[in-house]
Structure prediction request, 786 residues.
Amino acid sequence: MGINVRVLLILLLLGIGLIFYIGARTSPIIVFVFSICIISFLFSIYLTKWVLAKDEGPPEMVQISDAIRDGAEGFFRTQYGTISKMAFLLALVIFCIYMFRSTTPQQEASAQLALPSPIIMGWRVRLWVQDPGVTSAYITVAAFLLGALCSGIAGYVGMWVSVRANVRVSSAARRSAREALQIAVRAGAFSAMVVVGMAVIGIAILYSTFYVWLGVDLPGSMKVTDLPLLLVGYGFGASFVALFAQLGGGIFTKAADVGADLVGKVEQGIPEDDPRNPAVIADLVGDNVGDCAARGADLFESIAAEIISAMILGGTMAQRCKIEGKYYPSGFILFPLVVHSFDLVISSVGILSIRGTRDSGSKSPIEDPMAILQKGYSVTIVLAVLTFGLSTRWLLYTERAPSAWFNFALCGLVGIIMAYAFVWITKYYTDYKHEPVRTLALSSSTGHGTNIIAGVSLGLESTALPVLVISIAIVSSFWLGQTSGLVDEDGNPTGGLFGTAVATMGMLSTAAYVLTMDMFGPIADNAGGIVEMSQQPESVREITDLLDAVGNTTKATTKGFAIGSAGLASFLLFSAYMDEVAAFAREPFKQVDIAIPEVFVGGLLGSMLIYLFSSWACSAVGRTAQEVVNEVRRQFIERPGIMDYKEKPDYGRCVAIVASAALREMIKPGVLAIVSPIAVGLLFRILGYYTGHPLLGAKVVASMLMFGTVSGILMALFLNTAGGAWDNAKKYIETGALGGKGSDCHKAAVTGDTVGDPFKDTAGPSLHVLIKMLATITLVMAPVFL
Prediction:
C-alpha cells in the first residue's frame, strides 16, 4: 500500500507491545504462548528468506512459474472476495439471532457480560451497552469475523509460498534430489508454522482481550471457567472459510486435472504436464489453490476447533471439581495453547533435521524421500512425547488429585500413538511399495472396469483399521481421564471427557510437521509440471516424479490425520454442545434417546446430508471437467499445429473456464452444509413447542450431529484412500511396471485416477471441514433450537 517501512515497523512493535501487555494482565502462561508464537513467526521468515534465496533456473522455467502464480493469485482474490461477502452476511444473521436469544442463568446472576464498564490500563471506560444479549452478540460476531479472517490468511500464506517455491524446486532438481527435497520441505514448513502459529495466537489474543475487557474473576463478574464459551464464534468463522476454500479450490484443481488427463493422456497419448496440453497451466494453478491454500485453511480450522473444545471442557471440569486458586483453573483452560506452542518448537527441530547432503552432485544415488521425511517425523514424535509430559506436569498438577497429571500425560501418549498409526495405515493403503496399490495396478491389466472395482473395494476396506484406532483411542483416553482421581462435589469421577480432549491434543501435537509433509506434495507436483513444460532432460523429470509420488502419499497421510482429529474434535464439540443446551434449558441434558422417532429421523437426515454433500461436490467436478474436455478438444481440432509445437495453446481460456465454474459450483454444497442443521433445529423446535417437548429441537440436532459425524468419518476415509490409491497405482505403472506409460494398462489406470480425483481432493477433504462445521454451527446456534 506504499506505507513507509519504518512506520510499519513502529506499528508492529506497538502491536506486539499491546499484545504482551494484555497477556501479562491475563496470565504468565499466555505470555509464554505469545513468546513462542512470535519466535516461530521469526523462524518462518528465516525459512522464506532461505527458500527465496535459491535460484529460479532458466528463463523458460520462470515464464511458466509466472503464469501459474498469476492464475493462482487471480483466482484466490476472486474466491476470497466472494467468501468474505458471505461471511459478512452470516455475521449479520448471527448478530440478529444473538440480540433476541435467551440468556443463561449465570449471565443473569452476575450480569456477566453486561459490565457497566471494562477496565483498560487502570481507567474505567463507559460502555453504552448494558444488556448481556447485546454484548454477547458483539462478542460472538467479533470472534466469528476474526476466525474467518485468520483462516483466510492461513490459506493465503499456503498459496503465497507454494507459487514461489515450485520453480526453485524444479531448478534444484537439475542439481540433486536431496536439495530439491530440502527446498520443498522448508517451503512447506513456512506455511505450516504460520498456520499453526496463527491458530494459537488468534485464540490467545481473543481469550486475553476478553479476560481484561470483561474484568474476568473480579468480584461479581464472569468466572474464568465460563470464558472459553465466548470463543466458539472463532471456530465457526474458521470452519466457514475453510469449507468454501476447500470446495472452491477442490473443484478448480480436479476439474482441470480430469480435463487435462482425459484428452491429453488418453485421447492424444501425450505425457502428463506436456506443454502442448491447453489445460496444463489450469491444472498446475489448481495444485496451489486446491491443495496448498485449502489445506492450510482446513488444518487451521482443525486446530482452532480442537483448542476451543478442549478449553471449554477444561473450564467445565475445573468448575465441577472446584479446582480453585489463581493458577489452577486457567492451567486446565490454557493447556491446549501450551501444547500447540510446543508443537511449533518440536516441529521446527524435525524440519531442521532434514538437511542437504554435503556431496550434492547428481551422481550420488537418489535416497528415498519418504525415508528422509519419516526420519524427521520420528524426531518430532519423540520430542512430542517429552514436551507433552512436561506440559501436563506444569499445568495439570493439582493438590486435589496429585497423580491426575500422569493419567493425562498417558492420554496424550494415546493421541500421539494414534497419529502415528493413522499415518502408517494411510501409507500402507496408498504407497505403491505396499501390496494394496500393487494389486490395484495389476487389476488395470484386465481393463478399466476391473480397475474401478478394485479401487472401490480397496477404499471400502481401508475404513476398518482407522475406525478401530479411533475407537480404541476414545475409549482408552476416556477411561484414563475417568480414573485420574478428579471428582465433583458428589464424588463422581469427571475427568473422562477431558482425557479424550487431551488425547486429541496429543494427536495434533505434531500438526506443524504433518502439515509440512502435506504442503510438500503440491509443491513437488508443481515442480514436476514446470520441469516437463520447460522440456528438461529425463533425469530431472525422474527426480521430480519420485518427489511427486512421495508427495501423493504424504498428502494422503495428512488427510488420514485430519479426519482422525476431526472425529475426536467433533466428539468433544458434541459434549460441549450438550453442556451448553443444559445451561440454556436449565435442566440436565445428558443423553439423546434415538428410540424417539423424531430423534431417529434427525440421525437419518444427518447421514443423508453427508451423502448429498459428497454427491454435489463430485458432480460439480464432473460438470466443470466436461467444459474443460470440450475446450481442450476444440483447441486440438482448430489448432492442429499444437501437436508439432508450431502453435501455442491458449492456456488462459482453460484457467478462466475452471475459475468461473469453481466459484459458481462451490455455493450450492456450502449453503447446504450451513442451512441444514439450522433448518432442522428450527423445524423440530416448532414441532416440540406444539407437542409439549421443549427440548425436541436440541435433541434432534444432537442426533443429526452424531450420525453426520459417524457417516462423515467413514465416507471421508473411503474417498481419500481410494483416490490416493488410484493415483499411485497410475504412478507405479508410469515407473515402467506392467507395460509402462502409453500401454492399455496405463490407460485403465488413468481412468481410475480420474475417478479418484474428485474423491480425494474435493469431496473427501471438504467432509473433514463439514464434520467440524456441523459441530461449531450447532454450538453457536444452540439457543435457537430451544
Remarks:
- Residues 39-103+130-355+367-784 form one domain.
